[in-house]
Amino acid sequence: MIKTDGLCKRYGTLTAVDGLNLEVGPGELFGFLGPNGAGKTTTIRMLTGLLRPTAGRVFIGGYDVQREPVRAKALLGYVPDEPVLYEKLTGREFLTFMADLYRVDGSRRNERIPELLELFGLTERGDDLIQSYSRGMRQKIAVAGALVHEPRVLVLDEPTVGLDPRSARVLKDVLRALTGRGVTVFMSTHVLEIAERMCTRVGIIDRGRLIACGTMEELRAQAREDSATLEDIFLKLTGGTEYEEVIRLLGEEAAS
Amino acid sequence: MSRLFVWKFRLFWRSLARRSHVAAAVSLILAFFGLAWMVVVFLGSRSVFAWTARGLAGMPPEAAARMPPEAAAMFAGMEGLLLSGIYLVGLAICLFTAFGTAFVTMYSSSDLPLLFCAPLTVRQVFTVKFAEILAAESLWVILLVLPATLGYGAGVGAGWWYYPAALVLAFITVFLPAAVGTSLNLLAMRLIPPYRVKELGAALGSLLGAAFYALSQLGPRYAAGMSPQELAHMVGRFRLAGAGYSPAWWLAEAARTAARGPADAFLGWFGLAAACSLVFFAVSFVLVQEAFYGGWAGSGEVRRRQRRRIARQRRTACAPAAAPETAGGMADTGVRRAPGPAPAAAATRAQLAHPARPPSPVLALAGKEVRSIARDMREWSQALYLVVVMGVGLVVPFVKGGSTRFLAGTGGLYAGLGVAYLMLGGLAGYLGVGAVGREGGSWPLLRSTPVTGEEILWGKALGVMPLVMAPGLALTPLLGLALGGGIRAVALMAVFVLVVAPGLASLNVAAGALHPNFTARDPRQRTSGWGFLLSLLLEAGYAAALAAGVWMMAAGSWTGVRAWLRAVGLVIVLGSSACAATVPVVLAGRHLDTREPVSSHQ
Questions:
Q1: Is residue B203 situated within a structural domain?
Q2: Do B301 and A132 touch (CB under 8 A)?
Q3: Nearest C-alpha neighbor of B434 from the set B511, B362, B381
Q4: Do the strands A153-157 and A76-79 form a parallel or antiparallel pair, or are they unpaired?
Q5: What is the chain B residue with the closest CA to A149?
């Protein structure tokens, strides 16, 4: 459902994404990991047609995002990293607005919106302006907005940030249920436990290059550590283990 | 708490002293001008009050004889009236600014969380914050009320003890509005949710500014046509400052008795003003505890939400019986449901609220645009401000001797059409050029949906059109009547609004799509300078085409040899309006689709 072919993005001399080749099939929950500034958001923006690749191509459901953007985007649901929404719409109006943008049939829309509001615990606040919502509620309504048209591909950039435990659990259950129905989920996250437990495959990007990709077993094999957690693998591949000695010394100083 | 005061004073002093040489020089120059201003006010006030102290006896006999009885009566009480006017101006300015200062100091100050975490009581924090409000407001009184009242003392030859009394009265002039402003602010904190307070403040500022501008421009023009008797009669009707219940009057009487009268009379008037101030201070003292610790802030909004919830539950109870749960949707995702009303019932409710209609991204965008602008008090109040300023600015040059009726002739009608075009153009420019930039941070979300640039701009243009057309249709006939036009002129102006408003909305929306800066925090900075320039050029081009068409229609006739001229004029007017409404949107939509949807840093 998602295919990238030699995807590159350059800003002057800076290469944000460098020759990314990726394929995510139907029903897969793909975790996209990487340190800050590695190129995750840039990749996601190219997948959703928000950024034009310097080189390479992106296909969603077989449609080239650059050549047939409307058809490709119609299959897609996107949750941005920062839930900047329309402050002067109510939650219910926002979902109606999103449904209309995706041309969801009126009767289907009227069934779907109360279901989503209820699912994310927003029924009581559905008629309040988004302006009055907390960060977590904004995140929830953004996720609901991405689900309102029943997308075939769901792209989420840090979806669990700001969510309360119940909503995070609901989101995880929804994502599992959607992948069970053949929906492709592409999710970037910094919460490695979530990625380890939920994702069928994980890709790790560092300095614009995909440095590892596969199931947990495949990643362990790549890292040559049989019982390593995703965190161990991530730190080994992207750096971070060199600070362990400093942290140990700081701990000893504090204890003495 | 004394340490907190010292720190606050140290911070204030540092904000003045630790500046670059240029900023320090500017501050010194401003201080010098401030001092010079105070001297001028003092000298002016001394001269005026010395003159009023002499009364009618000081006037030339023939001038005193010519004076009408109302004016003579007014002149006799002029000293008290002027003095209470000075205090009224001081109180009004302080009250107007104290509300905003109290909001910034009491509610949205960045050091409040820090102070409340420190071992200080709410009263201590409140006292320090109130002192900050007093310090901020005292500038107006130091510049205006204090030199004027000191000048009064010098003018009437008051004794030495008048001057400390004038200082105390000046303090009351700051203290009273600061206490009232703080109380009102704390009341507003309950009624208005925190996220709307700034919006409301900006809206009130715009509306008051518009009213002040209209009064300042039109008032003197109308007053110029009045006789001295009419003027004296009008001033007598607006003697608010002289009313017995006005604190300005109490302060003026206190000042007069301090200058001339017995000390007990002074203490009476001063006590009245001070007691009033202390009552408001005590009210805010009580309210502030509730505001910060008692759940007062925003509790009005909580109540409103509760009322809405009850109303919704009642509606649900009245809705038809819920149908069995539909297949698909969340039902087949296997996700556990949270407790709450049955979704089928909620769906029925939603269907009642939003009847099923064919989905249209363009109409959805238009609806969103209308809601976003209509619900944002800043947007419509600034639009109204613009309309008032433009309307008054365009009409004032034609006001002669208090009359605006210049639309009677044919030439007047064309001038009226010009005024209507400029007002509509201004409104369409304000709402339309910023329409794309108004998306701000939500632009990436919009561009991730299967909607083309052209559809986005059509939606925005359709959303802006009724917002331009509705006030245009409401105001233009009023303007036509005010300018002395007949029914025919008013009808023609209304038709003109209907014809040109869509074009003006579309071409301004299209111009605003030229490189907007979505990352700018201030929505006004999201429109590029080129976009604004393009909108002006497009409006000017459209105006030229309309002017040519209207001129040909006026020069032609419906019958005879010159009928072709009128027909061509009509074709030009309608054709240029159709082009203005469509072509820019199509071109700008393509421009949006060819450029990168979001910038790298967005």
A1: yes
A2: yes
A3: B511
A4: parallel
A5: B329
H or E element at residue A155: strand A153-157
**Nearest-by-Cβ selection for B330 from A88, A119, A123:** A119
The identity of residue A68, as a single letter, is E
Paired tokens of B102: 């109290």
Find out whether B242 and B77 touch, Cβ atoms under 8 Å: yes
Q: Which of B297, B315, B341 corresponds to the end of one domain?
A: B297
- The ipTM of this complex is 0.81
| Contact criterion met (CB < 8 Å) for B375 and A88 | yes
Q: Does any domain span residue B306? A: no
Nearest to B175 by CA among B294, B84, B270, B266: B270
Residue type, B96: F
Q: Are residues B269 and B405 in the same domain?
A: no
Q: Could you tell me if B286 and B381 lie in one domain?
A: no
Q: Do A106 and B600 count as a contact with CB atoms less than 8 A apart?
A: no
Which pair of structure tokens corresponds to residue B557? 């006739």
Q: pLDDT of chain A along its 256 residues, tens only?
A: 899 999 999 888 888 898 899 999 999 999 999 888 888 989 999 999 888 899 999 999 999 998 888 999 999 999 988 888 888 899 999 999 999 999 998 888 989 999 999 888 888 888 888 988 888 888 889 999 999 999 999 999 888 887 778 888 888 888 888 888 899 999 998 888 888 888 899 998 988 898 888 888 888 887 777 777 888 888 877 776 666 667 677 777 766 6
Q: Are residues B275 and B417 in the same domain?
A: no
Q: Residue type for B64, please?
A: A
Sheet holding A14-24, edge to edge: A14-24, A2-11, A55-60, A63-64
Q: Is B437 domain-assigned?
A: yes
**Residues B410/B414/B415/B418 CA torsion (nearest 10 deg):** 170
Domains contained in chain A, CATH given: 1-75+153-161+181-256 (3.40.50.300), 83-150 (no CATH)
Nearest to B361 among A76, A103, A106 (CB): A103
Question: Same domain, yes or no, for B272 and B132?
Answer: yes
Determine the distance in angstroms separating the CA of A249 from the nearest CA of chain B, rounded to an integer.
33
| Residue B349 with chain A: CB contacts under 8 Å | 114
Residue B62: inside a domain: no
Helix (H) / strand (E) element for A8: namely strand A2-11
Provide the domain limits for residue B129: 20-56+76-227+238-297
* Cα nearest neighbour of A93 on chain B: B368
Domain count of chain B? 2
Residues B293 and B376 in one domain: no
Min Cα–Cα distance to chain B from A188, Å: 17
List own/partner pairs for A227-232 with CB under 8 A and 24 or more apart.
A229/A192, A229/A196, A230/A33, A230/A192, A230/A193, A230/A195, A230/A196, A230/A202, A231/A192, A231/A193, A231/A196
Q: How far is CA B99 from CA A214, B133, B136, B187, in A?
A: 61, 10, 12, 11
SS3 call for A221? helix
The CA distances from residue B458 to A94, B76, B87, B546, in Å, are 19, 67, 55, 23
Residues B555 and B469 in one domain: yes
Please report residues of B whose CB lies closer than 8 A to that of A121: 338, 340
Minimal Cβ distance to A101: which of B305, B356, B449: B449
Q: Are B394 and B539 in the same domain?
A: yes
Nearest to A140 by CA among A154, A126, A152: A126
Q: Looking at CA atoms only, how far is residue A109 from chain B in angstroms? A: 8
End-to-end CA distance of chain B: 45
pTM of the model: 0.71
Q: Do B372 and A128 touch (CB under 8 A)?
A: no
Partners of A112 on chain B (C-beta within 8 Å) are 329
Cα separations (Å) of A107 from A95, A146, B569? Answer: 14, 18, 48
